[in-house]
Write a structure and sequence with these properties.
401 residues; Cytochrome p450; 3-stranded antiparallel sheet; 52% helix; 8% strand
């Protein structure tokens, strides 16, 4: 395989799209020895495999580690895996079906609709503060606080609870394990965060059992078929998944807009008409989750290549979202008016993102406020990419208004 695909290279992380084009041109499935994965770069294949029940986020519902040709995780990592393995993202039927159905009762469209005034109020306050200061770090001062505050509101974490400030660091440490070949230090931080976050949530659950409120944890407590571990894992997943997409789409999206001044000028001229398609296009153009991994539970064939049971496929969302076979000759262009936009940023199939409506609400609110309150927003410095590839974003984005 060509060395152009190199997820540990800063140059590749900064711009993986030429390497994706090369992968698509060379075929439909590519063995990548450093991570022992099959890379899948085409939109049609990625979309189909997300829905294919011969693949799974886990294999332990059907096989032991030994039967699947894999080693069990180290015992020292157990707290992370207990937390992760009981969440919707890493479960398969029948547990996934049961838990998603139960969680959906507490995470309804009405829940999201009820949050809209809160989301808009928080977005207005955060953007207003940035404008009053004449600028600052868009990531730390707007993009990060918004989704964390919204999730805290959903979970019923009081405003004055000092643990609110630990939600983002806990989430960041846990999400480090989703990168390729994580280090032992990454695992150690993830284990510590898993233990601390779980203990805090168990305390909250105990409080809600005694004094239910109008929040998501109270709603989950009322669903008697959920175990406490499933409740804890669900809440952690909502934080992790619920803010990574919003944070990185906000920051990566604004950096994209600032590098496409004609598109930004058009959006500023007609924000109400263009905002919904613009958000979808920014989600497609530079997706915050570049890769989604699945285990092969039964042999599959892609483009004449048999991929045997026990393999792992890496579905390249970033490549699929730029595939000319689906998005035409303008696949690599930013088009904020793009109407036909079947991007797969939120996944597909049974693991389609439960929080997609909330993410869209947050993104629409924060982009609307920035367009309205900071009509001359510009970059104050070239941002630096974090080293992570799977969840891809900046260290910071310094702006002036």
């Amino acid at each position: 395989m060509d060395a152009a695909f190199d997820p540990w290279s800063p140059a590749f992380v900064a711009d993986p799209y030429p390497a994706y084009a090369e992968l698509r041109a060379r075929g439909r499935a590519h063995w990548y020895a450093p991570t022992r994965q099959w890379l899948i770069p085409h939109h049609e294949d990625v979309s189909a495999l997300l829905r294919d029940r011969r693949l799974g986020r886990t294999y332990t519902h059907r096989f032991t580690h030994e039967e699947f040709g894999r080693q069990a995780p180290p015992a020292a990592h157990e707290p992370f895996h207990t937390l992760n393995d009981h969440g919707l993202l890493d479960l398969e039927a029948p547990d996934h079906t049961r838990i998603r159905r139960l969680v959906s009762k507490a995470f309804t469209p009405r829940t999201v609709e009820r949050l809209e005034p809160t989301v808009r109020r928080l977005a207005a306050a955060l953007v207003g503060g940035l404008v009053d200061r004449g600028g600052g770090d868009l990531l730390a001062e707007v993009a990060e606080p918004l989704p964390v505050a919204v999730i805290a509101e959903m979970l019923g974490i009081p405003d004055d609870d000092e643990e609110r400030g630990r939600l983002r660091p806990w989430s960041a440490d846990i999400c480090g394990m989703f990168e390729l070949n994580p280090s032992e230090e990454t695992a150690r931080r993830a284990v510590r965060a898993s233990l601390e976050f779980s203990a805090y949530l168990r305390e909250l659950i105990a409080r809600r059992r005694k004094e239910p409120g109008d929040d998501l944890i109270s709603g989950l407590v009322a669903v008697e078929e959920l175990t406490e571990q499933e409740m804890v894992s669900t809440c952690v997943l909502l934080l992790n998944a619920g803010h990574e997409a919003t944070v990185n789409t906000t920051v990566n999206g604004w950096w994209t807009l600032l590098r496409h001044p004609e598109q930004l000028a058009a959006l500023r001229a007609e924000p109400e008409e263009m905002l919904s398609t613009a958000v979808e296009e920014l989600l497609r153009y530079d997706t915050p989750l570049q890769m989604f991994e699945r285990w092969v539970l039964d042999d599959i064939e892609i483009g004449g290549q048999v991929i045997p049971r026990g393999s792992e496929v890496a579905l390249l969302f970033g490549s699929a979202n730029r595939d000319p076979a689906r998005f035409g000759a303008t696949a690599d262009a930013l088009d904020l008016r793009r109407a036909d936009n079947p991007h797969i940023t939120f996944g597909a199939g049974i693991h389609y993102c439960l929080g997609a409506p909330l993410a869209r609400l947050e993104l629409t609110a924060v982009f609307a406020e920035l367009l309205r309150r900071a009509p001359r927003l510009r970059a104050a410095a070239e941002p630096r990419w974090k080293p992570g590839y799977v969840i891809r974003g900046f260290h910071e984005l310094l702006v002036e208004v």
